[in-house]
Design brief:
The protein has 415 residues and is of the alpha/beta class. An 8-stranded mixed sheet has the order 11-10-12-1-13-14-2-15, with helices on both faces. Helix 5 packs across helix 10 and helix 11 runs parallel beside helix 13. The protein contains 15 helices and 15 strands.
Amino acid sequence: MKYIVFLGDGMADRAIPELNNRTPLMAAAKPNMDRLAQSGLAGMVLTVPAELAPGSDTANMSVMGYDPRRYYTGRSPLEAISMSIEMEPGDVAFRCNLVTLSDAAEYDDRMMVDYSADEIGSDEAARLIEAVNQHFADDEIRFYPGKSYRHCLIWKNGPLELGLVPPHDILTRRIGEYLPVGKQAGRLQQMMAESAGFLAGHPVNRTRCKNQLKPANSIWIWGQGTKPDLPDLASLYCLKGSVICAVDLIKGLGICAGLHIVEVPGVTGNIHTNFSGKAEAAIQEFRRGQDYVYLHVEAPDECGHRAEIANKVRSIELIDSKIIGPVWDYLEANRQDTGEDYRILVLPDHPTPVSLRTHTGEPVPFACYSSDGRDFLPAQAYDEINCSQTGYFLDEGHQLFARLIRDGFKSVQPE
């Protein structure tokens, strides 16, 4: 049996007036997703427990089969693991965004204009993080460059009891109300405010402004945590599995889960990613003997954060046509040739409504197709409304993976 999870980050949404009060999933032309729902089992799943924040970290951990209430230790250590950063006991990892803030005399009075500084390029970002290290690195603290706007801070024996806010949650808001609070928060505040003093005039940002791109004129620190300890999926389920993704968070989860990380040229984490390359990578993983592929696409989430309605619809259509269609065709052809059955699961990790530009924690639609016909509870289409109408609801999202791989869905009765 072959298994694949197609995870469209942030695909779920709310009704949008500009789409005639439809969601992007309802508005998108997505025949493959619809056929999965019409030919298999569809329903709703709560991927993040109510007591936890609805982030891509907690949600993807849940979809991968781990209860985040038990295993979640923070977002940034997962990214650090993907970046091959060695973490010692007591080390605390933080996400460090390069952001665009508005101008104001006082740092507190500035507004969060863009959490990604126009999705700054990795080469430019590395030069800025080098400048940040020159100003702040010491025996306790060091910054590490990542991809685009996403970077890492490691603080030896650093504090965990902090109130830190993701920058994508406060777009267009005055930042003074959302600065770090708690034990040793003053040092984080100091670094953030001082970074705005020297980053604005950095040659990278002077060039960006000349090219009418937003400057990365401050760092923003959040997402603290310690190194997690996840049980190996290969041992738990006797699976050889792979992760295909553009972002360090999901790669870090995959590494912790014992999965093979596939590097695909041209993946970006946005709508300009190499969709076809991801599909081909999944097919190649199956051809070389892998049992399971977790294929993550960040684009719908980025479009939600940026309030790009048309691009969010388009990103869903590209996932459907350039990824799901070709991989499904391969799995079916392989079944005809070898007799090997397969199961396909499609879902978002969480909603990212364009009206809010951040994540929410309500249940998300899923559809699972089994080539052996083992589970059948169809919906008319794959979207929030039609999947909810089947009456099938799973309130423990981490159980979804076990039902896909081992238990089947019949052990949970629809309401």
